[in-house]
Amino acid sequence: MSTQTFVGQIVHSKSLNELEVIPNGFVAVSGGKIVAVGSDYSTWKQAAGREVEETLLSPSQFVMPGFVDCHIHAPQMPNLGLGLDSPLLEWLEKYTFPMESRYRDTAFAQRIYQKVVETTIRCGTTLAAYFATNHKESSIILAKEAIRQGQRAFIGKVSSDCNCPSYYVESSDEAVSEARDFVKRILELKSEIVKPIVTPRFALSCTESLMGSLAKIAKENNVNIQSHISENLSEVQVAEEMFGKLYAQVYKDAGLLSNKTVMAHAVHLKDQELKIFKETGTSVAHCPASNTNLLSGMCDVKRIINAGVTVGLGTDVSGGHNPSIKDALVRCLDISNHLHFVRTQSIKGCEEQQNITNFNNESKPLTYQQAIYLATLGGAEALAVDEKVGNFIVGKSFDALVVETDSFPIFNCGLQSEGKEPERDLLRLVQQFIYSGDDRNIMKVFVNGRQIK
Description:
The chain is an alpha/beta fold. The protein has 15 helices and 17 strands. The chain folds into two domains: about 120 residues, Urease, subunit C, domain 1 (Roll), CATH 2.30.40.10; about 325 residues, Alpha-Beta Barrel (TIM Barrel), CATH 3.20.20. α12 packs across α13.
């Protein structure tokens, strides 16, 4: 078996606060797995004693881990840019439920899901946690399409048995049986890269009985769980009135919170709910674009991280209007900066408001290096697959992007320091891509060593 090596500039996150840059490095891949990574390529090549296929990167290119989208609604892609002047619950009724109900038509599902997977791959998403719809057969189509195109994915058939339109709701018995059969059928595909994920839409659309049954299905099959929580203040109020307890406690009592659970949004989690998340190992998918578009609020990611909760990023298409995690990354930085402004201005303008936050070094806004972690390794950790993907560690799968920084819309034009400060030059390229690049700068995408773009 030949070994493929990528020789040149390498970037990946080792932790939230450590972005490793290797200006003159290499990553070696065999059988889809990373077998070596470092800075002394010639020594490794000589010692390897094996056939090596080399990809030599140009000075304007670098390799980084693929993006992880922890929360995206595949069936909502046709609604991109629609209804973003509406609050969450109104948006669901007017736009989302009518669109999702169309996926009872499997031909329609096949046509849209092919484009969804193509689009997210083009944007550099090597791993996506997809919400599908209530329809089992069309949800299976999404799984097969991800397998066909080579994208790593979690596929969730949505379950809901109350508080949905009459044309788009399941009976409790149907919701349980269909969820169980869906998980079984996806597992029978025996795919290394595509897995099922149990998906109660959210507590407002699920009875406690259904949530408990779904938790049992997840536990029996050792599969992941995804849902929504505390996206919107009205939603939080309704949930607490319906169940008579904290929103997070509803999910915990149903058995849905675990170290294989990711909950989207979490904008308005109370301190006690953060403790519940930490105790259960539950992660958060931060979706800054949709939180803004649907007027849900500004999620304080630093507060969640400081509470010991793992965070990844989500596009939340189509509440989020862009299918690119790179866009979510920049919007995450925007929100972090805006929260910083609010705190500093409150403190400077009114001394008695200092108690709104502990204003210290931990309250500083996120850096772009930390946001890269959220978009890659943090997302893998949130989905409990960080032992497989997320960065360049020997033994992990090679899920990666080759980024070109000397093509539109970045005008790099070789403006570097002629090799005098290689690490600084590489960080300059990374920063330009993060803030100013787009899918046109992502030249190649690899999943499990296979080139899929």
